[in-house]
Amino acid sequence: MDLDTARQELEEFIPHVKNISDSSIKKMAGRDLMRFKEFKKQGIAVKFGRFTQKENKQIQKNVEEFLSITGIDSAEKLLFISRYPEDKDTIHRLKTEYHFCEKISEGIPRPWRLIYYRARKMFDPNNYKGRYTKEEKEKLKKYQALHGNDWKKISELMSRSNLSVAMKFSEIKSAINYGPWTKEETQRLMNAVKEVMSRKLKAENPSSLSSLEQSDPDPWIDREKLYQPLPWTVIETKVGSRYWRQCKQKWNSILTSKLTRGQQLRRGTNGLEAKINFIKRLYETKAEDASEVNWDELCDAFGDVPRAYVQTKFYRLKVSSVPLWKKRSFSEIIDYLYEKKLPELEEKL
Which long-range contacts (C-beta less than 8 Å, at least 24 apart) are formed by 19-26? Predict the structure, then answer.
């Protein structure tokens, strides 16, 4: 199949395919296209976003079955070959012989690359190792001074994942200010967000920038919902005085304020009605996992608010209303809110 045909056929399943490189298109044509067509016959759409518990279990099953049929003795060897140079050739041969790409993606309607990355995250023993000690932070600063931003090298030295060491160093090097945001900091954040969004819009569709240049000072605010996630480490650098997570939280609060235009969303009758409507609509989704919820579609339960506001509202609702929520599944939490909390709110209203 030629490149143009592959890109055209993949476009049915991947809306952003025009932004994918030619080399990636070739790989997807070989690894994914036939799988996508089979899922279509079954009425199953290709998915993106967070992996569900069901998908995680399927990945675990696929990996364990592949280990069983090949005799490779650990998922770490299978997914992190560079850590085992003496076994490299044997593992490569077994992966080719037993069709590793097809096996690991079995039963999961997602691009192979995303499934592979998810498997690596799940089976990397260097993930989820808890807080960094003072000694580890000092080591991280030393290794970064020696090796720059070679996070793969540093992760091996630290026995932490690439992402973990990169994000922790970003936090360490930031001149973090824990006090209230000043007007100057807030303006730098606004400018940084506008700049990165404008650059992205320009790269994807130059004509779309016209809406950013109208007389209305905030026309670009509404665009934020369409371009998630934002590159927060880049924005952090431009702000200069805040850690990336602080920037993200502040931006979400700014966005909520801009979009709600001063509406009273959290008080009195309006607040009760919003919670009641939200719980009912969340229950109607019949979602088994948070990643199955289209949070954007629930935003108007509270008004014209961003997704982050709705997710924060849900978090606070479950923490304050659902006993032992950490031990319950997502669907069990929703059922409890609907069966127990909803009648209480309706009576109060």
Answer: 19/204, 24/113
pLDDT band at 223 (very low <50, low <70, confident <90, very high): very low
Fold for the domain defined by 134-173: Arc Repressor Mutant, subunit A (1.10.10)
Tell me how far apart the alpha carbons of residues 326 and 318 are, in angstroms, rounded to a whole number.
9
DSSP symbol at 159: T
Q: What is the reported pLDDT for 205?
A: 59
- The pLDDT tens digits for 107-121 are 999 988 889 988 988
Q: How far apart are CA 96 and CA 73, in angstroms?
A: 17
**121 with 63: CB under 8 angstroms?**
no
What torsion, rounded to 10 degrees, do the Cα atoms 36, 38, 44, 49 define?
-20
Name which of 169, 164, 163, 161 is nearest 145 in CA terms. Answer: 169
Give the model's pLDDT for residue 128.
65
Per-residue pLDDT at 206: 57
Tell the residue number behind the tokens 């003795």, with chain if given. Answer: 73
**Which of 310 and 257 is assigned the larger pLDDT?**
310
If 0-12 CB within 10 Å is exposed, 13-18 middle and 19+ buried, where does residue 206 land? exposed
pLDDT exceeds cutoff 90 at 68: yes
Helical H segments across the chain, by residue range: 3-10, 22-31, 33-41, 53-70, 75-79, 88-97, 100-104, 112-123, 134-147, 151-158, 162-173, 183-204, 232-239, 244-260, 268-284, 295-298, 307-321, 330-336, 342-348
For residues 161 and 251, give the distance between their C-alpha atoms in angstroms, rounded to a whole number: 28
Within 13 Å and on the Cβ side, how many CA atoms surround 10? 27
Percent of the chain residues past pLDDT 90, beyond the cut: 20
